[in-house]
Amino acid sequence: MPSSERAPAQAQVDQAIEWLVKLRFDTPSPLTEQQFQQWLAGHPQNAQAWQRVSGLSDELAGLPGTLSRRTLDGSQRQRINRRDHLKLLAVLAVGGSLGWAAREPLGLPALMADDSTATGERRSLLGSDGSRIQLNTASAIDLRYSAERRELTLVRGEVSLDSNASDNRPFRINTRLGALGTRDGQLLVRENEQGLLLAVRRGEVTLLPYSASPRLVHAGETLQVLANGDSQSASLHGDPWGWTDGVLSVQQMPLGEFVTELSRYRSGLLRCAPDVAGLKVSGTYQLGDTDRILHLLARSLPVRVDYRTRYWVSIDAA
What we know:
Structural class: alpha+beta
Strand content: 25-35%
Oligomer: single chain
Order of helices and strands: HHHHHHHEEEEEEEEEEEEEEEHEEHEE
Strand order of the largest sheet: 1-4-5-7-8-11-12
């Protein structure tokens, strides 16, 4: 088999991870950008490793900042030490996105979710009980049914559930912060930096945090559940249900926040310059074509969209 068709070697995966950490956390200098482009073009498997690794922005968002300062630097040539490098690989592997490469050398078990989606992918499922389930981008769930109850575990990402009300068994949704209970509810749960976003469209949902008192959530409520179990009404600039219809629907959302949302549906790096991050975005955008969305932004706002590569895009002032 030609070398261009073989899977990237572990060394190339490691290099791609180092570049991703640096580009994700730091503002790259022109020299760093030039060095990255030279590495990317240096071998076909470098580009393959970058393509596969570059969808890890969600996992990197939770990493300690010290890791970002120990990556390649054009002048100091600092590198992640072996302990931190293994820690980084472990976080990424457990997150699910590097199962193709990092798990085997680290001896980590594969994350065997019942159903999952890749970055930019959305999927609709029909449970054996007749409930309708949708997975958003980069998400994974487990489903378990017994004679006593129905159970869904959000392994990562975001899921919507339209429970079949004709099934009398309670439906339990497990998350990393606690559980949710319903029978006939239509709800949405999303992991985010603050904890969990919970939106209820129909029925009633009982919120059962691990570290706080239960709370009954009614139809029409949208809550932000914090890491300590407390919850409060969520103030949003967009429709949290939009993605279930394949759209990103926003109203007066700051461009920086909009770019963060859009980046969930694109592999690679999508950056917004601080001097345009406060510009407001309104509209309904089709998630099936994120390049089209970027084109529309450049037409409606005083910004330009620069493609360094397909996987590295910057939005700057026009």
